[in-house]
Amino acid sequence: MRAIVTALALVASMLSPSLAQTSPTPSSTSTSAPWPTHPIRLIVNFPAGGAADLLARLIGQSLSETFGQPVVVENKGGANGNLGGEMAARATPDGYTLLMSSGGMVAINPHLYANLPFDPTKDIVPVASVARVPFYLVVRTQNSAQDFKAFVADLKANPGKRNFGSPGIGSSPHLAAELLKKMTGTDAVHVPYRGAAPALNDLLAGQIDFLFDPGIAIEHVKSGVLRALAIGSPQRSPQLPDVPTLDELGLTGFDADAIFGVYTPAGTPQEVILRLNTEVNRALATATLKERITAVGNVPVAMSPDAFGARAREDSKRFGEIIRERGITGGN
User: Closest by alpha carbon to 50, among 226, 227, 201?
Assistant: First the structure.
């Protein structure tokens, strides 16, 4: 089994063992009981090792300390986040099942899938944003392209002969690459994976040529194993300040950032949602959590539930456009 990326190891070493336990089966509680009175399940709809998993373990640890109850992370990857999303949507809306997801499940998946077993825009509701996740265009250092200009020249000279990985069809990193191809007039073959970490492992092994990474490759960039050519964000990253944005490199307006955050099944009591939002925002304001989120290449972002939902609707509009233009589908 390939090694877990360094960033996950660094984060995991700081976390409580309770976060690695098997998901509990909570007992029922009355609506008048104080909340929470027993462990909370935090579903991550992507495999371990990716941005959603890292953020879930960080925010879960903080909430566990605040509530005095374990917050148990449960990874349920597959179908571009739909499997974990459906699990959360079908859960009892009592505040004891949460979901950590990229905004793609709400903003992207309805454009990709003709028939979904649940409605991401109605069956789950936004609770709190956690981080803006930029995507870094990375290649192995053995790649002959020393900079973005050379990278594009190589793609143009080899149409359809280079490949790139992503966490799945229609994922934000996939759409970032499609936007790159559109704006540079190039072509490359998409290789979808079941999460960002497996895609990164195959880049490290030389099985793919490039990818848009959500921050878990930063330590490999710093160690010299990988090279970051650009960042698909409106701003440079404090972790890699010398890496230019694609906008700076001539792709005007390029923005593929994703907002990751916490959701809960529709019908969850509003007082629970507001308390969760308050505690997540409080945690994001601490120096410790800011430092840990920034260390994996992400940017802490606090929003109200309404603002978080509005951002998802904005993302749906811009990502829906590229999905339609490129004819991307995720299945029936």
Answer: 201
